[in-house]
Amino acid sequence: MKLDPSIVRTLSLHPATTTVSTHGSSGFNSTAKITTTLPNKTKKHLFMKSAPGKAAEEMFRGEHASLNAIHAVVPSLCPASLATGVSEDGNAFLVTDFLNMSSRSLSSSSTAETQKQQQQHSGMSLATKLATLHTTPAPTPPGYTKPQFGFPVTTCCGSTPQPNTFNSNWANFYAQNRLQAILSKCEHNHGADSDFHSLVMQVVEKVVPRLLGDDHLSNGQGITPVVIHGDLWSGNAGRGIIGGEGAVEDVVFDPSAVYGHSEYELGIMNMFGGFGRGFFEEYHRLCPKMEPVGEYADRVALYEL
Known about the structure:
By secondary structure, the chain is an alpha+beta fold. The protein contains nine helices and twelve strands. The protein has a five-stranded antiparallel sheet. The chain is globular and about 60 Å long.
Protein backbone atom coordinates (compact mmCIF):
# COMPACT_ATOMS: atom_id res chain seq x y z
CA MET A 1 0.00 0.00 0.00
CA LYS A 2 1.45 3.37 -1.05
CA LEU A 3 0.91 6.68 0.71
CA ASP A 4 -0.24 9.48 -1.58
CA PRO A 5 2.50 12.12 -2.12
CA SER A 6 0.18 14.98 -1.15
CA ILE A 7 -0.38 13.41 2.28
CA VAL A 8 3.38 12.94 2.70
CA ARG A 9 3.88 16.65 1.96
CA THR A 10 0.98 17.82 4.12
CA LEU A 11 2.31 15.94 7.15
CA SER A 12 6.01 16.65 6.38
CA LEU A 13 6.79 12.92 6.41
CA HIS A 14 9.96 11.31 5.07
CA PRO A 15 8.97 8.71 2.45
CA ALA A 16 11.97 6.51 3.17
CA THR A 17 11.01 6.07 6.83
CA THR A 18 7.22 5.97 6.45
CA THR A 19 4.98 2.98 5.81
CA VAL A 20 1.21 2.63 5.45
CA SER A 21 -0.96 -0.45 5.84
CA THR A 22 -4.67 -1.26 5.88
CA HIS A 23 -6.09 -1.04 9.38
CA GLY A 24 -9.60 -1.81 10.63
CA SER A 25 -12.77 -1.24 8.65
CA SER A 26 -15.44 1.39 8.17
CA GLY A 27 -18.81 1.50 6.48
CA PHE A 28 -18.02 4.79 4.73
CA ASN A 29 -14.26 4.89 4.22
CA SER A 30 -10.98 3.08 3.63
CA THR A 31 -8.87 3.10 6.81
CA ALA A 32 -5.13 2.76 7.28
CA LYS A 33 -2.29 3.04 9.78
CA ILE A 34 0.69 5.24 8.98
CA THR A 35 3.96 4.53 10.78
CA THR A 36 6.86 6.96 10.47
CA THR A 37 10.27 7.11 12.11
CA LEU A 38 11.12 10.52 13.54
CA PRO A 39 14.63 12.08 13.46
CA ASN A 40 15.18 10.93 17.08
CA LYS A 41 14.58 7.32 15.88
CA THR A 42 11.24 6.96 17.71
CA LYS A 43 8.20 5.74 15.81
CA LYS A 44 5.00 7.74 15.45
CA HIS A 45 1.69 6.13 14.51
CA LEU A 46 -1.14 7.91 12.70
CA PHE A 47 -4.60 6.88 11.54
CA MET A 48 -5.99 7.76 8.11
CA LYS A 49 -9.44 7.63 6.56
CA SER A 50 -9.98 8.16 2.84
CA ALA A 51 -12.96 8.11 0.50
CA PRO A 52 -13.92 9.55 -2.89
CA GLY A 53 -16.29 12.43 -3.50
CA LYS A 54 -17.32 15.85 -2.26
CA ALA A 55 -19.51 14.32 0.45
CA ALA A 56 -16.46 12.64 1.99
CA GLU A 57 -14.50 15.88 1.78
CA GLU A 58 -17.27 17.67 3.70
CA MET A 59 -17.56 14.83 6.24
CA PHE A 60 -13.81 14.77 6.96
CA ARG A 61 -13.64 18.55 7.23
CA GLY A 62 -16.35 18.41 9.89
CA GLU A 63 -14.72 15.53 11.76
CA HIS A 64 -11.34 17.29 11.69
CA ALA A 65 -12.79 20.40 13.32
CA SER A 66 -14.89 18.33 15.72
CA LEU A 67 -12.00 16.24 17.03
CA ASN A 68 -9.85 19.29 17.58
CA ALA A 69 -12.65 21.19 19.35
CA ILE A 70 -13.05 18.31 21.82
CA HIS A 71 -9.30 17.69 22.13
CA ALA A 72 -8.68 21.36 22.93
CA VAL A 73 -10.89 21.10 26.04
CA VAL A 74 -10.11 17.53 27.20
CA PRO A 75 -6.98 16.22 25.41
CA SER A 76 -7.31 12.70 26.84
CA LEU A 77 -10.89 12.31 25.53
CA CYS A 78 -10.11 11.91 21.82
CA PRO A 79 -7.27 11.95 19.29
CA ALA A 80 -6.19 15.21 17.73
CA SER A 81 -6.76 15.58 13.99
CA LEU A 82 -3.61 16.51 12.08
CA ALA A 83 -4.79 17.13 8.54
CA THR A 84 -7.64 16.85 6.08
CA GLY A 85 -7.77 17.54 2.36
CA VAL A 86 -7.84 15.97 -1.08
CA SER A 87 -5.01 13.72 -2.26
CA GLU A 88 -3.50 13.62 -5.74
CA ASP A 89 -5.68 10.63 -6.63
CA GLY A 90 -8.78 12.73 -5.91
CA ASN A 91 -9.81 11.03 -2.67
CA ALA A 92 -10.62 13.04 0.43
CA PHE A 93 -8.53 12.13 3.49
CA LEU A 94 -8.40 12.68 7.23
CA VAL A 95 -5.31 11.95 9.35
CA THR A 96 -5.42 11.81 13.16
CA ASP A 97 -3.32 10.57 16.03
CA PHE A 98 -3.50 6.80 16.13
CA LEU A 99 -6.01 5.43 18.63
CA ASN A 100 -5.04 1.93 19.76
CA MET A 101 -8.35 0.52 20.98
CA SER A 102 -8.15 -1.84 23.96
CA SER A 103 -10.43 -3.58 26.43
CA ARG A 104 -7.59 -3.80 28.93
CA SER A 105 -7.94 -2.06 32.29
CA LEU A 106 -5.10 -0.86 34.50
CA SER A 107 -5.55 -3.81 36.83
CA SER A 108 -5.03 -6.33 34.01
CA SER A 109 -1.45 -5.18 33.35
CA SER A 110 1.75 -6.31 35.05
CA THR A 111 2.78 -4.51 38.26
CA ALA A 112 5.52 -2.46 36.60
CA GLU A 113 3.29 -1.64 33.61
CA THR A 114 0.42 -0.72 35.91
CA GLN A 115 2.59 1.72 37.87
CA LYS A 116 3.75 3.35 34.64
CA GLN A 117 0.18 3.59 33.32
CA GLN A 118 -1.10 5.09 36.57
CA GLN A 119 1.52 7.82 36.29
CA GLN A 120 0.48 8.56 32.70
CA HIS A 121 -3.28 8.14 33.12
CA SER A 122 -5.38 11.31 33.24
CA GLY A 123 -7.23 9.99 36.29
CA MET A 124 -10.54 10.91 34.65
CA SER A 125 -13.42 8.58 33.86
CA LEU A 126 -15.56 9.03 30.75
CA ALA A 127 -18.28 10.65 32.88
CA THR A 128 -15.78 13.13 34.35
CA LYS A 129 -14.30 13.93 30.94
CA LEU A 130 -17.71 14.51 29.39
CA ALA A 131 -18.81 16.66 32.33
CA THR A 132 -15.63 18.73 31.94
CA LEU A 133 -16.37 19.18 28.24
CA HIS A 134 -19.95 20.18 29.03
CA THR A 135 -19.07 22.73 31.72
CA THR A 136 -16.38 24.55 29.72
CA PRO A 137 -17.74 27.47 27.67
CA ALA A 138 -17.25 27.13 23.93
CA PRO A 139 -14.82 29.54 22.25
CA THR A 140 -16.06 32.79 20.79
CA PRO A 141 -16.07 32.53 16.98
CA PRO A 142 -14.09 35.12 14.99
CA GLY A 143 -16.19 38.21 14.33
CA TYR A 144 -18.40 37.70 17.40
CA THR A 145 -18.15 39.17 20.88
CA LYS A 146 -19.43 36.14 22.78
CA PRO A 147 -19.87 32.36 22.27
CA GLN A 148 -22.51 31.32 19.76
CA PHE A 149 -24.57 28.22 19.08
CA GLY A 150 -23.44 26.41 15.94
CA PHE A 151 -20.03 25.40 14.61
CA PRO A 152 -17.46 26.81 12.18
CA VAL A 153 -18.13 24.10 9.56
CA THR A 154 -20.85 21.69 8.48
CA THR A 155 -20.67 18.38 10.33
CA CYS A 156 -22.16 15.00 9.46
CA CYS A 157 -24.13 12.73 11.77
CA GLY A 158 -23.58 9.43 10.00
CA SER A 159 -23.77 10.47 6.36
CA THR A 160 -26.26 13.29 6.98
CA PRO A 161 -24.82 16.84 6.72
CA GLN A 162 -25.88 19.18 9.53
CA PRO A 163 -25.90 22.95 8.91
CA ASN A 164 -24.26 24.84 11.76
CA THR A 165 -24.76 28.51 10.95
CA PHE A 166 -24.10 30.51 14.12
CA ASN A 167 -27.09 31.70 16.15
CA SER A 168 -27.18 33.54 19.47
CA ASN A 169 -30.38 31.70 20.53
CA TRP A 170 -30.29 27.97 21.24
CA ALA A 171 -34.02 27.35 20.75
CA ASN A 172 -33.84 28.99 17.32
CA PHE A 173 -30.71 27.04 16.40
CA TYR A 174 -32.19 23.69 17.41
CA ALA A 175 -35.48 24.40 15.62
CA GLN A 176 -33.92 25.69 12.41
CA ASN A 177 -30.62 23.84 12.09
CA ARG A 178 -31.72 20.46 13.39
CA LEU A 179 -35.49 19.85 13.23
CA GLN A 180 -36.36 21.96 10.17
CA ALA A 181 -33.12 21.04 8.42
CA ILE A 182 -33.78 17.30 8.67
CA LEU A 183 -37.44 17.85 7.73
CA SER A 184 -36.33 19.63 4.55
CA LYS A 185 -33.91 16.83 3.72
CA CYS A 186 -36.58 14.17 4.28
CA GLU A 187 -39.04 16.02 2.05
CA HIS A 188 -36.39 16.48 -0.63
CA ASN A 189 -35.49 12.79 -0.60
CA HIS A 190 -38.92 11.22 -0.09
CA GLY A 191 -41.51 13.86 -0.90
CA ALA A 192 -43.69 15.94 1.41
CA ASP A 193 -46.26 14.52 3.81
CA SER A 194 -48.63 17.21 5.09
CA ASP A 195 -49.41 15.45 8.38
CA PHE A 196 -45.76 14.84 9.19
CA HIS A 197 -44.83 18.39 8.19
CA SER A 198 -47.56 19.75 10.44
CA LEU A 199 -46.40 17.68 13.42
CA VAL A 200 -42.78 18.80 13.05
CA MET A 201 -43.80 22.44 12.76
CA GLN A 202 -45.92 22.15 15.92
CA VAL A 203 -42.81 20.94 17.76
CA VAL A 204 -40.78 23.79 16.22
CA GLU A 205 -43.30 26.52 17.01
CA LYS A 206 -44.69 25.33 20.37
CA VAL A 207 -42.59 22.67 22.10
CA VAL A 208 -39.10 24.03 21.40
CA PRO A 209 -39.69 27.58 22.69
CA ARG A 210 -41.67 26.20 25.65
CA LEU A 211 -38.88 23.85 26.79
CA LEU A 212 -35.74 25.56 25.50
CA GLY A 213 -36.45 29.29 25.60
CA ASP A 214 -33.74 31.50 27.15
CA ASP A 215 -36.26 33.11 29.48
CA HIS A 216 -37.30 29.67 30.75
CA LEU A 217 -34.12 27.66 31.21
CA SER A 218 -31.72 28.02 34.13
CA ASN A 219 -34.05 30.38 36.01
CA GLY A 220 -34.08 32.79 33.10
CA GLN A 221 -30.30 32.84 32.67
CA GLY A 222 -30.40 30.84 29.45
CA ILE A 223 -27.73 28.48 28.14
CA THR A 224 -23.97 28.85 27.75
CA PRO A 225 -22.75 27.07 24.59
CA VAL A 226 -20.36 24.16 25.22
CA VAL A 227 -18.68 21.70 22.88
CA ILE A 228 -20.93 18.71 22.15
CA HIS A 229 -19.67 15.46 20.58
CA GLY A 230 -22.93 15.28 18.64
CA ASP A 231 -23.11 11.55 17.88
CA LEU A 232 -22.22 9.97 21.20
CA TRP A 233 -23.70 6.50 21.35
CA SER A 234 -21.92 3.50 22.87
CA GLY A 235 -20.42 2.56 19.49
CA ASN A 236 -18.52 5.84 19.41
CA ALA A 237 -16.96 5.43 22.87
CA GLY A 238 -14.46 2.94 24.20
CA ARG A 239 -11.06 2.50 25.79
CA GLY A 240 -7.78 3.08 24.02
CA ILE A 241 -4.31 4.58 23.95
CA ILE A 242 -4.06 7.87 22.06
CA GLY A 243 -0.94 8.16 19.92
CA GLY A 244 0.11 4.60 20.65
CA GLU A 245 1.80 5.53 23.95
CA GLY A 246 0.68 6.07 27.51
CA ALA A 247 -2.19 4.63 29.48
CA VAL A 248 -5.48 3.13 28.40
CA GLU A 249 -8.07 5.91 28.64
CA ASP A 250 -11.83 6.25 28.24
CA VAL A 251 -12.12 7.83 24.79
CA VAL A 252 -14.64 8.93 22.17
CA PHE A 253 -14.35 9.16 18.38
CA ASP A 254 -16.31 9.89 15.18
CA PRO A 255 -17.76 13.18 16.50
CA SER A 256 -20.20 15.53 14.80
CA ALA A 257 -19.57 18.50 17.04
CA VAL A 258 -21.59 21.61 17.72
CA TYR A 259 -21.48 24.42 20.28
CA GLY A 260 -24.76 23.75 22.04
CA HIS A 261 -26.73 22.86 25.16
CA SER A 262 -25.01 20.20 27.26
CA GLU A 263 -28.24 18.18 27.55
CA TYR A 264 -28.42 17.92 23.75
CA GLU A 265 -25.65 15.31 24.01
CA LEU A 266 -27.85 13.15 26.21
CA GLY A 267 -30.56 12.67 23.59
CA ILE A 268 -28.55 10.24 21.44
CA MET A 269 -26.91 8.70 24.53
CA ASN A 270 -30.32 7.94 26.02
CA MET A 271 -31.90 6.83 22.75
CA PHE A 272 -29.29 4.18 21.90
CA GLY A 273 -28.32 3.21 25.46
CA GLY A 274 -25.01 1.77 26.61
CA PHE A 275 -24.40 4.29 29.40
CA GLY A 276 -25.55 2.99 32.75
CA ARG A 277 -27.06 4.55 35.83
CA GLY A 278 -23.67 4.89 37.53
CA PHE A 279 -22.34 6.86 34.57
CA PHE A 280 -25.17 9.40 34.70
CA GLU A 281 -25.00 9.73 38.49
CA GLU A 282 -21.31 10.60 38.28
CA TYR A 283 -21.87 12.88 35.29
CA HIS A 284 -24.69 14.83 36.94
CA ARG A 285 -22.72 15.35 40.13
CA LEU A 286 -20.30 17.38 38.01
CA CYS A 287 -22.72 18.72 35.40
CA PRO A 288 -26.10 19.11 37.15
CA LYS A 289 -29.42 18.90 35.36
CA MET A 290 -30.53 22.35 34.27
CA GLU A 291 -33.50 24.09 35.85
CA PRO A 292 -36.34 23.40 35.69
CA VAL A 293 -35.16 19.93 36.71
CA GLY A 294 -38.74 18.64 36.50
CA GLU A 295 -38.60 19.09 32.70
CA TYR A 296 -35.22 17.39 32.26
CA ALA A 297 -36.74 14.15 30.89
CA ASP A 298 -38.89 16.15 28.46
CA ARG A 299 -35.85 18.03 27.16
CA VAL A 300 -33.86 14.82 26.65
CA ALA A 301 -36.84 13.28 24.83
CA LEU A 302 -37.00 16.38 22.60
CA TYR A 303 -33.29 15.98 21.81
CA GLU A 304 -33.92 12.41 20.66
CA LEU A 305 -35.84 13.70 17.63
